[in-house]
Amino acid sequence: MTETTATSIWLFGYGSLIYKVDFPFLERRRARIHGWVRRFWQGSHDHRGTPEAPGRVVTLIADPDAVCTGMAYRVTPDVFAHLDHREKNGYTREASEFFFDDGSHTQGVVYVANPGNEAYLGPAGDDEIARHIARARGPSGENRDYLLALAAALRELGSDDAHVFGIERELHGMLQAAT
Ligand code: SIN
Prior knowledge:
30% of the residues lie in helices and 37% in strands. It is of the alpha+beta class. The strands form 2 sheets. The protein has a 5-stranded mixed β-barrel. The structure holds succinic acid (SIN). Residues 13-17, 57-58, 87, 111 line the site of succinic acid.
C-alpha cells in the first residue's frame, strides 16, 4: 500500500518525537527498532540552535548489533506535512520495521539524519557534547531542555541508554560546578 492510499502509517520516534507530541495520533505504543543506535551527532539549526551556532540533537546511526527503544505512533498520512516540516533540518523518512512488547511487529517510517547532511556534526566525547548542549539555544528553546526531556522520557520507557544518560550526567556535573 502506498502512503497516499494508506489510511494510517506507523511512525517510530526516538528523540523529541517521544516527548514533544504536537501531532494527532490514533494509537501509541512503546517499540524497538533493530540495527540502529541513538546518538547526539546531528546539528540543529532550526530548533535547539541556529545556523551560526547549531545545537546538538539525536539521530540514528546504523549498527547491526544495536536495538533502540522509542515510541511508535499510528498516524494518518496528512500528519506528515507537519512532521516533515518539523524534521526538515537533515532528516529523511526511511522505511523500517518496529517490534512491540507483545512480540508483534509492523512496517513503518522513521526520521533519520544520515551522515553527510548539511547539519551533521558527527561523534564527540560525552563531555564535549554536554559542553556544546549547555551553551546552545534556538527557536524551540534551550538545547539542555531537549537532552533532559529525552533522558526523562527514556527513563519512563525503561530504556537504559548509556549514551544519553552519560551526556546528561556530564551536563549535571557542569551545571553543579557553575553554581
Ligand atoms: C525523532 O524524535 O524521532 C527524530 C529526532 C528528533 O526530532 O529529535
